[in-house]
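testing teh design pipeline on a random one, pls ignore if ur not involved
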């Protein structure tokens, strides 16, 4: 299997089961792909924060050195790949309630659904302008509501410290605001944006932004470690899932069973990478290409629902890998900008890209758990038939991240 020869070289220490909390999470699609790769994979990439997708019919428009223009007028795709209908009856009066609550003016039409991944978002037009409406929870506050508010507080601190975030709107002094028994919402100005180009402008902005994030010195007892989302489960747990899948004759059973030694090896590596780092900071937690908007007034960072405790160096490695895997010169410019802005020079070894691997592992385990428990596949999740592909992507990402880390370390050492 792809990557086994690389992965087998590293065996991390033992690890413990870390149950995944119930707080919803935004997950982002894959990192930068060349136009050739996009055409080969015919993959749908989703901007989960802003609900834009690039579908098969759009892939040929991609050009090397750019991330796809995810646009503002693409269709919304649900977990089964079907187009969702915008402006459902559920939202027929939501636009009035939300606009009145946040003081946005008179709505001119019903809100248009743009995505339903971990969080539903809509576009709202009023007499005052155009807005992005994000639903954080429905009905009354859930048990993780304090964490969500802590994340929003961190976002507000980042804004005050100069990080470019779309303008937010508050109600009764709260950006994350509960509307009676309807739910809690956040509202932002709507920003149109285009292609995200790999250039010195983007590299410099990313480096400075990450250095700024890592220096905010924010702490809140309601925030949790990013490692809770890594999907680090013991062999016994995987065996239980596999036995359930065998009894129910789930299609993915044999592929996961045969790949289990590799999955556990990768889990060891992720756990070892996290354990080896002592540079913990509260940070954004999801610095991916789809969360950076390139507008005609500048670059903006969006989607602040993954804030938590991160290793500064591993988050930096994930971001470098996501943006610059195929362009080491860009990776170096981003890293130089990070250090020049006060970021601590990172330890670059085989584990440097493991935060990107951890995201893949977390996605896989959540999808497997949902399938085993026969839970509805909502939000970012695809059909359970995608589990074998998710396994292969995990293995490939591990191999690629190790190889990329080595190339980056060699570049920095030799200067070439």
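output:
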């Amino acid at each position: 299997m792809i990557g086994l020869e690389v992965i087998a070289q590293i065996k991390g220490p033992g690890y413990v089961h870390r149950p995944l909390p119930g707080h919803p999470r935004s997950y982002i699609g894959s990192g930068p792909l060349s136009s050739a790769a996009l055409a080969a994979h015919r993959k749908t990439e989703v901007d989960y924060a802003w609900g834009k997708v690039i579908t098969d019919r759009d892939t040929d428009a991609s050009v090397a050195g750019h991330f796809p223009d995810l646009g503002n007028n693409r269709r919304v795709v649900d977990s089964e790949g079907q187009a969702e209908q915008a402006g459902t009856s559920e939202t027929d009066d939501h636009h009035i309630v939300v606009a009145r609550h946040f003081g946005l003016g008179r709505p001119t039409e019903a809100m248009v659904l743009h995505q339903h991944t971990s969080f539903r978002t809509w576009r709202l037009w009023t007499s005052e302008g155009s807005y992005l409406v994000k639903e954080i929870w429905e009905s009354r506050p859930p048990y993780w509501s304090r964490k969500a508010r802590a994340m929003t507080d961190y976002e507000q601190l980042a804004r005050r410290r100069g990080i470019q975030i779309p303008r937010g709107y508050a109600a009764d002094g709260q950006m994350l605001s509960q509307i009676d028994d309807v739910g809690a919402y956040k509202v932002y100005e709507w920003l149109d944006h285009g292609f995200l180009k790999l250039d010195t402008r983007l590299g410099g902005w990313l480096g400075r932004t990450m250095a700024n994030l890592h220096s905010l010195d924010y702490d809140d007892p309601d925030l949790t470690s990013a490692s809770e989302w890594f999907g680090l489960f013991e062999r016994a747990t995987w065996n239980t899932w596999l036995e359930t899948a065998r009894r129910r004759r789930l299609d993915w059973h044999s592929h996961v069973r045969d790949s289990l030694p590799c999955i556990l090896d990768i889990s060891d590596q992720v756990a070892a990478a996290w354990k080896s780092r002592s540079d913990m900071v509260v940070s954004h937690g999801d610095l991916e290409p789809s969360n950076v908007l390139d507008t005609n007034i500048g670059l903006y960072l969006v989607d602040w629902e993954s804030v938590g405790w991160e290793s500064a160096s591993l988050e930096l490695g994930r971001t470098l890998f996501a943006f610059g895997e195929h362009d080491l010169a860009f990776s170096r410019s981003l890293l130089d900008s990070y250090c020049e802005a006060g970021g601590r020079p990172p330890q670059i070894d085989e584990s440097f890209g493991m935060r990107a691997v951890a995201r893949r592992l977390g996605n896989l385990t959540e999808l497997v758990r949902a399938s085993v428990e026969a839970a509805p596949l909502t939000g970012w999740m695809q059909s359970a038939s995608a589990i074998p592909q998710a396994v292969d992507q995990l293995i490939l990402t591990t191999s690629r991240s190790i190889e990329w880390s080595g190339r980056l370390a060699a570049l920095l050492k030799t200067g070439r």
